[in-house]
Specification:
The chain is mainly beta and about 180 residues long. About 15% of the residues lie in helices and about 45% in strands.
């Protein structure tokens, strides 16, 4: 009646149930930890230059280059269930057709709590171009530092750590000489 196989089955079912309950408790316990990271994001300069996109060599487009200063203390976001943070700076603006755009211009992955104190004076890492070919008549952009908490177990959590106080206008296009 109680063979070796039935005993192994009972023990493995009990262990897997205990592991699943433990993982569910870990996942739910991370919602108890609420953190409010503080930071500041200042845009030093924005420059707009004409150029040709790689994909469409014959199409002239405007490319924006953003220099920014970023300081943030993201250590409160780390707890025992935090695997890593994905940080990104995005520009949110409305183009001349009234379409809202959000463009990621810089990102970083932070895997240790010791690296969560940021002081970056940088430039956009990714191409920042307007699909309609020109930033002319585009509304000023808000720049935001956002984060994504990637836990060992549980749901991803998103948030915002810093934002420019005022929207930053796109300057007139500068011609290359």
């Amino acid at each position: 009646m109680h063979t070796v196989y039935s005993r192994i089955n009972n023990v493995s079912a009990m262990l897997s149930t205990c592991v699943m309950v433990l993982l569910a408790a870990i996942s739910l316990s991370t919602f108890v930890f609420t953190a409010d990271p503080k930071g500041s994001l200042d845009v030093a300069s924005v420059q707009v230059f004409p150029g040709n996109a790689r994909r469409y060599a014959n199409k002239n487009q405007d490319f924006a280059f953003v220099n920014f200063n970023l300081t943030a203390d993201l250590t409160p976001l780390f707890n025992w269930n935090t695997k890593q943070l994905f940080l990104y700076v995005s520009a949110e603006y409305e183009n001349k057709r009234g379409v809202k755009n959000e463009v990621v211009i810089w990102d970083r992955i932070v895997q240790r709590k010791e690296d969560a104190q940021l002081a970056v004076a940088g430039r956009n890492k990714y191409v920042f171009r307007e699909q309609s070919a020109s930033f002319k008549n585009a509304a000023p952009a808000h720049y935001t530092l956002k984060y994504n908490i990637m836990p060992y177990v549980g749901a991803l959590t998103y948030g915002e750590a810093a934002r420019t106080a005022e929207p930053v206008a796109f300057p007139e296009r500068q011609e290359l000489s």
